[in-house]
TrEMBL record:
It is found in: Cell membrane. It comes from Erythroxylum novogranatense. Residues 23-62, 228-254 are annotated as: Disordered. The keyword Protein transport does not apply. Keywords: Cell membrane, Glycoprotein, GPI-anchor, Lipoprotein, Membrane, Proteoglycan, Signal. Residues 30-44 have a biased composition (Pro residues). GO terms for biological process: plant-type secondary cell wall biogenesis. This is FAS1 domain-containing protein. GO terms for cellular component: plasma membrane; side of membrane. InterPro entries: FAS1_dom_sf, FAS1_domain, FLA_A. It is a lipid-anchor; GPI-anchor.
Length: 279
């Protein structure tokens, strides 16, 4: 048997492998999987300030245009005022007079809503230091709180058309006059003793409006100087014992006519005196 040289054998194997490779179709390249797209970010919800969140920062606009606090769920006037801050004395006065219960009843039994003019802590300093607040009776303190509450909702725009004097829970008329007058962008409040303005909106939701005032609204009926008491009337003189009784007889004489009055009986007679001279 004739032996094939090793070099020739290797050459034949290389030629066969090349032919086989050229005849078989090339495998399609495998594409790597496309990377997954990141999920779209959720839309940002509009900020809602609840009673459990800190109060909004002060605005650069006028004080009456400060953004109000808004909340969801049942309305709690005390929590709203507490979260707004600087209403400590007004809150104590509302709770001590149990007007918070009256407000709760008003909000749950009436569709009219309420409007509250809330004095700041600084507004109470004058009447606290002077002792005026402590000198009030429980009834007067209750009326003082009620004088700051209107039994219907008033928006800032409605202040321009409201009829004066405004009726509060304390009453109206000459005893509790409360007048609201708008000028330009300000809301002025007068009571006959107090003249102040609405300096901010604490809370509003088309049913409850709480507006900040920097003075306590003093009603005339409580704080106006009382007129001096009238002088006592002079004592009446007692009748003398000799004064005739209303039931006793009354005698009147006119000329020769004499009348006796006893009760409803009148007796009139004419005295005739005859003098007879005997001879």
């Amino acid at each position: 048997m004739k032996q094939v040289p090793l070099f020739s054998l290797i050459l034949l194997l290389l030629l066969h492998a090349k032919k086989t490779t050229s005849q078989s179709p090339a495998a399609a390249p495998v594409k790597p999987p496309a990377p997954a797209k990141p999920p779209a970010p959720a839309p940002k919800a509009s900020p809602v300030i609840s009673v459990n969140s800190p109060p909004p920062p002060p605005s650069a606009q006028s004080p009456a245009m400060v953004a109000p606090i808004v909340t969801k769920g049942p309305i709690n006037i005390i929590k709203i005022l507490s979260k707004a801050g600087h209403f400590t004395f007004f809150i104590r006065l509302v709770k001590s007079t149990q007007e918070d219960l009256q407000l709760f009843s008003q909000l749950n039994t009436s569709r009219d809503g309420v409007t509250i003019f809330a004095p700041t802590d600084g507004a109470f300093e004058a009447i606290i230091k002077s002792g005026t607040l402590n000198s009030l009776s429980d009834q007067q303190k209750r009326e003082l709180v009620q004088f700051h509450i209107v039994a219907k909702f008033l928006s800032s725009a409605q202040f321009q058309t409201v009829s004066n004097p405004i009726k509060t829970l304390a009453g109206s008329g000459t005893r509790f006059p409360l007048n609201v007058v708008t000028s330009d962008s300000s809301v002025n409040i007068t009571t006959g003793l107090t003249n102040t303005t609405v300096s901010g909106v604490v809370y509003t939701d088309n049913k409850v409006g709480i507006y900040q005032v920097d003075k306590v609204l003093l009603p005339l009926d409580i704080f106006a100087p009382k007129p001096p008491a009238p002088a006592p009337a002079p004592p009446k003189h007692e009748k003398s014992e000799s004064a005739e009784s209303p039931l006793g007889p009354k005698v009147t004489t006119s000329g020769a006519e004499t009348s006796f009055v006893r009760g409803n009986l009148v007796i009139t007679g004419v005295a005739i005196v005859s003098v007879i001279f005997g001879s």
